[in-house]
Structures are given as structure tokens and as C-alpha cells.
Amino acid sequence: MEPYDPEDYDPDAEIPDIGLDPNERCVSVTNTGEVERVCYVTVFDVPCLGRDGKRLGMGQTADDDGNERGATTFIALCPPLTFVHLCTLDLPEAMTMAEVQIESDISDANPHPDPEDEHPLGLAFPLACRGGPSAPSTEDGNNNGDSDTTWQDDVSEPSYLCTQGEGGHLTHFLRGNYHAIDFRCKEGTPILAAGDGTVVEVQDSRRLTGVAVGNLYGWNSVMIELDAPPPSQSVAKDRPMEGNGFDASSASESAEGGPLFVEYVHIQYKSSVVKRGERVTRGQIICRSGSVGFSPEPHLHFSAFRSKDPLAPTVRVRFLRPPDESGEADKGGFIPRAGMKYNGLGALDE
Question: Is 331 left (phi over 0), alpha (psi -120 to 50) or beta?
Fold first, then answer.
């Protein structure tokens, strides 16, 4: 990084958000304003070098028609009045900087207005697990509306790795995703309704995948508005902040009820077995996991909101374990954190 001083430039000079230095072959982002900015930048098909001169790993991206390209994407928080140098391009001999294709999305950073906001409705774990309490079944092994398969046939995982949790530094640091939870899971893993409710949105017609910036605006998802909780599914306000490393004192008074919407993102193409306006029950299969949208690997991105407004901030929620052998309900719940494996009983190594 290096500072940007307006006095070094002509008052009428236009400073681009993305800078390409033809001599140094450097790609930079510029913040000439007074507010921190979040920058997503993708370089297509050209190897990128880090500050040590070593090649960075190149990912893949594909559009809805399956056309694949190499892609290296950078996510940077750019402070006010600052240049951030992202990489140096390792151009082929016959290629010029003018031929480099770059895609970007740059906007003012929009932090979460209340990171300790928590909803008291306890949720069911959102993925079916082999042998776990969240695996839905009936006598014939089929689930509501998903009569073509049985969960026993296609659920092989006893648990799922949380790859990014609350406040995650990769993408979970702004208002619309701060409390989101990512679970690594194979494509086609059954996804379950977190509670009784009504489907309010379904999008499963996209196929694009990978790390290109443009994929931020194309994804598949299901959103459900959950019913008000019965006492057995409410989280106690004096519960410990288990499994996430946060301080209980700052959140114990913030758990207020009201509407709650949960969203399942990156779902598989044409996998939804529910439609808008349909009632669902807790633990019912609603769709299958995938890797559609801005997605470096197959995973489920799960988040909750107090409103279905596209600009609504996320809200913290907890997953409840099933009642114990005595029938006593779980009142504390758990919040997955990155680096640990989870199923409906909580973290595997707790």
C-alpha cells in the first residue's frame, strides 16, 4: 500500500478505481475518498505474482453455458486515500497490458450496524448427516416432496467442516453476510428446513460457478420465513456463547424475537423441491447443495435476516441439538466456527 495525496495530482485529473501500470505490470486499486472501500478484482487467464515474485494459485470460473476460464480474484479492504497494489502480472511475451481482461466490483464498505444482534429462535441443523439427528426419514426412507430419492442413498458425511463463520475475514465482514455460516459439502447433499415456515423465494436456474467477480450477482438460493418459535425451540437469554469464541455478556440482552428469514445459497441447479408460498416443516428436505455463484468450492452458505429486504443485515442464530434421553430440550444451542466439523449434535471435538 501507499498513500494517495490529492495535492500530487491535477484537480481535474481522473484517478481510476483500477490501475494497470504498463511498465511494472502491476494491478492496483485506488481509494481517493474518505471512506473505506471493499474491492473485488478478478484477473482472467493471466498468471499473477505476489510480492515475493512467486505465482499465485489460479482458480477456475464458468458461466451458465459451461464456458471455463482461469481466474485469480482479490478481495481487499482499501483504506481512505490509499493505493493498494494487488499483484504483478506474468504476461506471455506476445501479450500487452491492454489485452488483459479484468473484472471488478468496488463500493464503499458497509459494516454491520449491530454485530451482536441475535434472534432467539433455535434452528435445526441445515444439512442431512449420515447417522445424525438431522437426517430426515420416514418408514420408507423418503422425505416430504423428495420422493425420487432417499437420504440414506446419498448422504455419506457424518459431519461438515465449517469453512467460514461469523465475522469471517474472507467474505463475512459486511452487513449482508457478517453472521453467515459456510459448510463444505459435496454437491447434491440434502439441505433441510431449519424450522417450520413458508418459502418466500426460490432461484435454482443458474449454473455459473467459480471465483469471478461477476458471479457475485448470480446464484441459486431458497429463502424461508420461519414461524414464531414454540418454547421448546427458543434459546435461553442467559445461555453461554458456546462454540464461537464470543463474549456472552455483550449478546445476552440482544436476543429479540420478531420475523426471521433464513437463506440457503449456492444450491444445485434445478434441485429445489419446494416452491414459493409452500409450507415446509422442520427437517424437511428442500433442495440440494451445490456450488453456483461466487463459490470457490461446493458448499452451503447459510444466513439469517430479520427482513427479506435485499439490504437487510444478517442476524446471529443458533442451532439446537435434539432433546436428550430425558426429553429435556437444548436451551443453549451452538454457533459453528471456522475450522471445526459439525452435525446436529454440535461440534465433533467438543
Answer: alpha
3-state SS string over 181-238?
EEEECCCCCEEECCCCEEEEEEECCCCCEECCHHHHHCCCEEEEEECCCCHHHECCCC
Euclidean distance between CA atoms 9 and 24, whole angstroms: 20
User: Count of residues for the chain?
Assistant: 350
- The C-alpha cell at 208 is 455459473
Q: What domains appear along the chain, each with residue ranges and CATH number?
A: 2-108 (no CATH), 110-350 (2.70.70.10)
* CA dist., res. 213 & res. 209, Å (int): 11
Identify the pLDDT of residue 140: 36
Helix %, strand %, coil % for the chain, to 5?
A: 5, 35, 60
Rounded CA-CA distance 100/112 in Å is 35
User: Taking a C-beta distance cutoff of 8 angstroms, is the pair 44, 50 a contact?
Assistant: no
> How far is residue 211 CA from its own chain's centroid?
13
In this structure, what C-alpha cell is assigned to residue 255? 436476543
Q: Measured at the alpha carbon of residue 162, what is the angle toward residues 130 and 64, in degrees to the nearest 5? A: 90
Q: What are 111's three cell numbers?
A: 459494516
- Cα angle 164, 168, 169 (rounded to 5 degrees) comes to 120
- Measured CA to CA, the distance from residue 237 to residue 223 in angstroms comes to 26
Question: Which residues partner with 108 through β-bridges?
Answer: 37
Encode pLDDT of 19-53 as tens digits. 999 999 999 999 999 999 999 999 999 999 999 99
Phi/psi of residue 232, nearest 5 degrees: -70, -15
CA atoms within 13 A on the CB side of 17: 14
Longest CA pairwise span in the chain (Å) = 76
Residues of the chain with pLDDT under 50: 135-150, 238-254
Give the DSSP H or E segment for 153.
Answer: helix 151-154
**Residue pLDDT, tens place only, 99-139:** 999 999 999 999 999 999 999 999 999 999 986 665 444 33
Q: Cα-flanking dihedrals φ and ψ of residue 215, to 5°?
A: -70, -10
Measured distance CA(333)–CA(282) in Å, rounded:
16
